[in-house]
């Protein structure tokens, strides 16, 4: 199944979370075994080609795609967590949301300095979370040069923000709008 074929398994929910927004929901893709398998295979192949030795996924849907792609590629996975979820000393980064701030944390012992780590998530919109995860992983010594997404919303320019930070962005599909 090609990435273009996978688009039919992404549900569009109008007016969520606010009027005028077209929410791209991957729940339907995840719930369809062949499309989930194909998406994971595409992400894993691209991650392997990038030279990544670890994948990092942001909570929560990045865990689904990132851990599965890492297992498929035969490499490790780093969970990028919300605050207070890891039982060991962590490092973290605060970042801006549209209305407030949030924080991401990792266990820094999961990264060997100089290790090539690629990001994986379900969707790139404004890029705030992916940029924060990149900063956090780099602060732990990772070399982050690639990020892989199931969906890109190019009108929101998140991929462009990541590229400006020196990260090559690759998405299986894109959708216009926000």
Automatic annotation (TrEMBL):
Keywords: Cytoplasm, Glycosyltransferase, Purine salvage, Transferase. It catalyses: AMP + diphosphate = 5-phospho-alpha-D-ribose 1-diphosphate + adenine. The keyword Transferase applies. Its main location: cytoplasm. InterPro entries: Ade_phspho_trans (IPR005764), PRTase-like (IPR029057), PRTase_dom (IPR000836), UPRTase/APRTase (IPR050054). SUPFAM superfamilies: PRTase-like. One of its GO terms (molecular function) is glycosyltransferase activity. Pathway: Purine metabolism; AMP biosynthesis via salvage pathway; AMP from adenine: step 1/1. It is an enzyme of class 2 (transferase). Its EC number is 2.4.2.7. Residues 32-150 form the Phosphoribosyltransferase domain. It is found in: Cytoplasm. The keyword DNA damage does not apply. PANTHER family: ADENINE PHOSPHORIBOSYLTRANSFERASE. Homodimer. Belongs to the purine/pyrimidine phosphoribosyltransferase family. Catalyzes a salvage reaction resulting in the formation of AMP, that is energically less costly than de novo synthesis. This is Adenine phosphoribosyltransferase. The lineage of its organism: Bacteria, Pseudomonadati, Pseudomonadota, Alphaproteobacteria, Sphingomonadales.
